């Protein structure tokens, strides 16, 4: 039988060594909480649990690409005001069955390292790169995620606060009542934030990534860079 393909998520922190002692401590606490929480909540979707290594890298091997996307989005939410990062997702095989990420190897890691070195670190404004065994889908997902990232980065703190509440299924009225804001002002704030564009793009991303694994019957080992 062909070897099962997996999906490697590789997160690279930017400027973490330049943080103050206080911010470094805050970041470390956030990372530990993030890794522990996802390893527990997504255990059935993980081939190798998330690990934090070398001070500025987080990686994990997933069974499906949707959970790579969800994990990266959650990490953005909790670190948005602390540190920047970039990430890549690569589909491929693993060389050795090991819980130690440094000993595994395989095409998934080769592709991820190539993406990080040849694209993400050279295009410093680029947030992410995806390479899965459907080249067209790789381009589409990469473009949509980077679009959402740019729109989120342009948000004011209040726009971001409203966006997070809306994404947690609160209404503008509920947000105004809970936070003590003027409802009409929040409607204006939200109308200038492109939140609807982001919500529609993220809905499309979830559908595309979910459908990809449903349509896949056997792994494809063709080269995709």
List the helices and strands and how they pair.
Blueprint: E1 6-14, H1 21-41, E2 46-53, E3 57-62, H2 65-79, E4 84-92, H3 101-104, H4 107-120, E5 128-131, H5 135-153, H6 157-167, H7 172-179, H8 183-191, H9 195-215
Parallel strand pairs: 4-5
Antiparallel strand pairs: 1-3, 1-4, 2-3
Helix pairs in contact: 1-2, 5-9
Question: What do you see in this structure?
Answer:
This protein has 225 residues and is an alpha+beta fold. It has a domain at 6-139: 2-Layer Sandwich (Alpha-Beta Plaits), CATH 3.30.70.1230. It is 54% helix and 16% strand. The protein has 9 helices and 5 strands, in the order E-H-E-E-H-E-H-H-E-H-H-H-H-H. The protein has helices at residues 21-41, 65-79, 101-104, 107-120, 135-153, 157-167, 172-179, 183-191, 195-215; strands at residues 6-14, 46-53, 57-62, 84-92, 128-131. The chain has a 5-stranded mixed beta sheet, with helices on both faces. Strand 2 (46-53) and strand 3 (57-62) form a beta hairpin. The longest helix is centred in the N-terminal third of the chain and has 21 residues, at 21-41.
Task: Determine the structural class based on helices, strands and strand pairing.
Answer: alpha+beta
- Helical amount: 40-55%
CATH class of the domain at 6-139: Alpha Beta
Number of helix segments? 9
In terms of DSSP E residues, the strand content is 15-25%
The strands making up the biggest β-sheet line up spatially as 2-3-1-4-5
Mean pLDDT: 89
Report, as a whole number of angstroms, the end-to-end distance.
24 Å
